[in-house]
Amino acid sequence: MQHRIVVASGKGGVGKSTLSACLAQEMARRGHSVLLIDCDIGLRSLDLILGVDEHVLFTWADVVLGRCELHQAIMLRGDFHLLCAPLQPERALKDDMLQKLVKSCTQYDVVIVDAPAGIGFGFRMACLAANRAVVVTLADPICVRAVSAAVRQLRQHGVQDARLAVNRFDRKLALRGQLLMIDDIIDQTETQLIGVVPQESRLFAQTADGMPLQEGIALQAVRRIAGRLDGENIPLVIDAAE
Ligand SMILES: Nc1ncnc2c1ncn2[C@@H]1O[C@H](COP(=O)(O)OP(=O)(O)O)[C@@H](O)[C@H]1O
Ligand SMILES: [Mg+2]
After folding, report:
1. Alpha-carbon span 112 to 39, nearest angstrom
2. For residue 136, which of 88, 146, 160, 186 sits 20 to 30 Å off, Cα-Cα?
3. How far is it, in rounded angstroms, from Cα 4 to Cα 7?
């Protein structure tokens, strides 16, 4: 079965694109053939995060609207492939178009769809393309409320299997009452936890092979999330933030 995972949150700036890029890398490292899709129409960022922004010729919108072939829009990024989002909204796009494209991409066993903020058109498009979700939140009440709404919408769009990733967590701040505790976030979102990613300031570093995701506690936490998505029983670790 193809794993089609939407990374969503309802809220912007919580780390969806960052975690999507890290997850794509880690799923590829686990031997999967991975396609990463930026679904943030108008505000794409994976091309920047992955350092290929100057090389984008076509996007998945060009493919679904018949302006180019799939192979012309696919970008090779380390061990996985990337499809970028269009820079402008396009009236001709229908919400099931990405779903059809993804289902036709049978050469990939893992597809990761980076959803936009909000629960509008782009979110719906991303959800319809997926059969599982990782919902990302920060440990604050505003993000947690948005994630709760996103989980309800995901279910309405047919994605029942949603797991919670708490990003930029700092245990010390949570113990001081400045962030929510993990148990409270699980209770409020009624969503099973898949991992906790600590706050880490040096997430990205341009290296010789061009891979900008820095090895560190955040990437290690995403590696454990990738293992759990793969069905492995990996104990929960909450690393101290730096
Ligand atoms: N675990 C983390 N530790 C520190 N900074 C992070 C972490 N995850 C994401 N960030 C930063 O948070 C900002 C927003 O991340 P981004 O992935 O663009 O969010 P979204 O896609 O949800 O809008 C970026 O500057 C990113 O580098
Ligand atoms: Mg994003």
Report:
1. 10
2. 88
3. 10
How far apart, in Å, are the Cα atoms of 169 and each of 22, 87, 173, 181? 17, 31, 8, 9
Question: Does 14 contact ligand 1 (Cβ within 6 A)?
Answer: yes
Ligand 1 neighbourhood includes 195 CB (under 6 angstroms): no
3-229: what CATH class? Answer: alpha beta
CA 63 to chain centre: 21
- The two structure tokens encoding residue 78: 């380390």
CA distance 97 to 132: 18
Task: Fill in the DSSP letter of residue 220.
Answer: H
This model's pTM is above 0.70: yes
Token readout for 154 is 């995901």
pLDDT digits (tens, 9 = 90+) for 102-141: 999 999 999 999 999 999 999 999 999 999 999 999 999 9
Residue type, 35: L
CB count in 10 Å sphere of residue 193: 17
